[in-house]
Design a protein that fits this description.
- This protein is an alpha/beta fold.
- It has helices spanning 81-96, 123-133, 199-204, 209-228, 245-252, 259-272, 276-292, 296-310, 318-345; strands spanning 9-11, 16-18, 24-34, 46-51, 62-65, 71-73, 101-108, 137-154, 160-175, 182-196, 231-241.
- Helix 5 (245-252) packs antiparallel against helix 6 (259-272) and helix 8 (296-310) packs antiparallel against helix 9.
């Protein structure tokens, strides 16, 4: 079931003191819900994942680059990429409980042998799959493109450094029996390294190419789940805490989450102070408090006021300026993200 009652912003108290040459700063860590790159219609509660791809040819995408820059195309039979990706995606989606149910079809829907051609599912086939698995949509993996390169380097310290770089490009379509389809592509990158003064040991310390591809494709499925549905990310917010009576009183309310009281004191500090520095610091704090309680328009307005006030000071802290600009850009983006989250969560 979709978590329709999840708040787009969850506040975790984690207040630490940062020493600064200008004024003290406190930071707090927020768990922020980020929108997915795919927006499923709100009535999509059950999905089935299908493999609709053709395995990559064994002589495509596998490369070795030697110490002297010589490149060799390798041959490797790895025709299970789609199986690992779809299984990894199914497992990850089921653990997140965004959908009521996530099914996985074990039958390959693609009966062609053309790796370069994306075979679209017919509407009749989509409806059949939805009926067969009792779902509302079909998530189709259309193509998997693997690129793996083992490279060898000689370091200044005299050791041998090796890399195994794997890139997994995937093409997906979300099919609906009565709605417009959605197509999207993802790229996932993975890197293994080794370093040894013995050249052969440096090579042997890398995983086998086949094993690395297994791990990369399983992880790709898990990573894609975090792009298909909203995900939580940790972000830091910074409160200014100068040696001003009202500003200090306001900060006493932060650990207690008494945001209305803190905002009132910061507003008073900004209105009564003759120093623009106190004003922009108070405006910044008001913006963050409003973000935490969900007043995004007010958060953007006060973040802009903080930045505008800061620009009026001829000689001001570059560190403060960077903090204000970064936060303003962040909160503007967050406001847009919350609009998208409402479409994805329905709240």
């Amino acid at each position: 079931m979709k978590p329709k009652n999840i708040s787009p912003l969850f506040f975790i108290i984690s207040i630490l003191l940062l020493n600064s040459c200008t004024s003290k700063m406190y930071f707090t860590t927020l768990d922020v819900l980020k929108p997915a790159e795919v927006t499923f219609p709100l009535d999509i509660n059950n999905v089935v994942i299908v493999n609709n791809s053709v395995p990559q040819p064994s002589n495509t995408g596998h490369l070795t680059t030697t110490l002297y820059g010589n490149k060799t195309n390798e041959t490797l039979q790895f025709d299970s990429a789609a199986i690992f990706i779809t299984a990894g995606l199914r497992d990850a989606l089921n653990t997140k409980s965004f959908f009521n149910g996530v099914e996985l079809s074990l039958s390959n829907q693609n009966t062609t042998n053309n790796y370069n051609y994306i075979n679209k599912l017919s509407m009749e086939r989509v409806k059949t799959l939805c009926k067969m698995y009792n779902v509302d949509a079909v998530v189709s993996l259309n193509k998997v493109q693997l690129t793996d390169n083992i490279s060898e380097f000689y370091t200044e310290e005299g050791s041998f450094y090796n890399e195994l770089d794997v890139k997994v490009k995937t093409d997906w379509t979300m099919y609906y029996p009565d709605k417009k389809n959605t197509n999207i592509q993802f790229v996932d990158s993975f890197l293994w390294t080794s370093d040894n003064y013995d050249r052969m040991k440096a090579r042997d310390e890398l995983p086998k190419r086949y094993n690395a591809l297994v791990d990369a494709t399983i992880l790709t499925g898990s990573n894609i789940a975090d792009r298909m549905i909203p995900r939580w990310e940790k972000e830091d917010r910074y409160f200014f805490c100068p040696k001003d009576k009202l500003m200090l009183q306001a900060m006493d309310s932060v650990p207690l989450r008494k945001w209305d009281k803190a905002i009132e004191l910061w507003k008073t500090a900004a209105e009564t102070s003759t120093k623009n520095k106190i004003k922009y610091q108070a405006y910044n704090n008001i913006a963050i408090a409003n973000e935490i309680i969900g007043n995004m328009d007010e958060a953007v307005n006060y973040a802009k006021k903080a930045l505008d006030t800061y620009s009026m000071i001829p000689y001001s802290s570059d560190k403060d300026g960077y903090q204000l600009i970064t936060y303003y850009q962040n909160i503007v983006n967050r406001r847009e993200e919350m609009k998208l989250l409402k479409k994805q969560l329905g709240n």
